[in-house]
Amino acid sequence: MAVIDSGVDLDHPDLAGNIWTNLAELNGSPLVDDDHNGFIDDFQGWDFANDDNLPDDDYGHGTYVAGLIGAIGNNGIGCIGIAPEAKILPIKVLNSSGSAYLSDVEDGIRYAANAGADVINLSLGFYSSGITPGDFTSFQSAIDYAQSHGSVVVVSAGNQGADVSVRYPAAFPQVITVGATTSSNTLASFSNRGSGLDLVAPGADIASTGMGGVYGTGGYGTSFSAPLVSGTIALLLSQNPFLSLNDIYRRLTYSAKDLGTAGFDTTYGYGLLDAFKALYVLAYGNDMYGRITSKQFADGNSSKSEYWLNTTKQYRELFYNSSHDLLRIDQYYENSAVLESQTYSGGLTRRYFADGNIRSVLDPAQNLLSEYYDEDFYGNGSGRLKRSVTPSTGVYSVYREYWSGTDKVRFTDNY
Questions:
Q1: I need a labelling partner for 208 at 20 to 30 A (CA). Which of 31, 112, 374, 390 fits?
Q2: Candidates 47, 61, 156, 230; catalytic one
Q3: pLDDT, tens only, 118-143
Q4: What is the DSSP string of 184-222?
Q5: CA distance 44 to 54
Q6: Residue 70 three-state SS
Q7: How many Å apart are CA 227 and CA 276, to the nearest integer?
Q8: Does 61 qualify as catalytic in the annotation?
Q9: What is the pTM of this model?
Q10: Distance (Å, whole) CA 18 – CA 209
């Protein structure tokens, strides 16, 4: 987890144990570039602001950000980060007054990518009403370089209360741009917004680690929203290290709590970060959606999937070809699921299918409704329908394969 910022308090008791270590340099020779990356003795990152190997914080901002991502947990002191076992790679680009040269930020991004950072957090930006993408081609190239090396780049939307289109890197399309909400889940007045916004996360009255081994409260800004998303991505990658940028983006945006206008909007993007849902939605391969064969109960529109959420009929565009509809568990061990229904001569029924990593579906009485079966089913899929049922109140169960084992996901069928 690269924190490109003002550095990190390397001796902070809630961070020191989670600071990344460059073993090639640590076990190498003094004053020698043992790993041949162009930086001598970069044991714990690099200070581009002062061009030395000590990315210690002298401004405080980076330490606050780092704590939100990876403050150590279960140690009886201070606070805990979103990903308390993540390793923090400190890259200092902001000086003691909080300013930075763009070239240092670009170099820091490339350094992070070369070091193998899974996530790069940029709680900083360059803002001007007169700037255009053409003014930041080298910045764009650095972002592209990081992504080509497998790094996910998360950035703060900015605190001007303006459109993100005039703040970089937030305006770049391939980054995950995060705005700030208040404790009442409304957009903070200072938070930037616009079509370039992807998500929002808490950014008002935030507590975290402070420079000098202390702790701070009352932090305000999108700078403190972005690391909450970065930490969540760290958790997703700990669950599945093979997730692509698109996989991660889908999980974050589909699991977000919708605020404001239904669906994407320019105030909240796709909604409020929900780390719990992002981690424990029903997955199919690298997607958060399971599949059920739509041939048996299509609603007559092959381009959309019908589902029910909190007793309201909803639709979502399909992400696969028209032969599949989608099954989604919205919250682990909680309510609501995506299900197809159709009115037959005998009344309203639903058909549940087990397919892919969904091993079986059971009704509230634990009667088997569907099971996974390794043969072609009606020429499409690998599920075997056991029986249709009339929707009823109660907790249904889905058993799914989950990496090396099987777990159980429960849902309430709303109808």
A1: 112
A2: 61
A3: 999 999 999 876 666 677 899 999 99
A4: TSSB-TT--BSTT--EEEE-SSEEEEETTTEEEEEE-SG
A5: 7
A6: helix
A7: 16
A8: yes
A9: 0.71
A10: 13
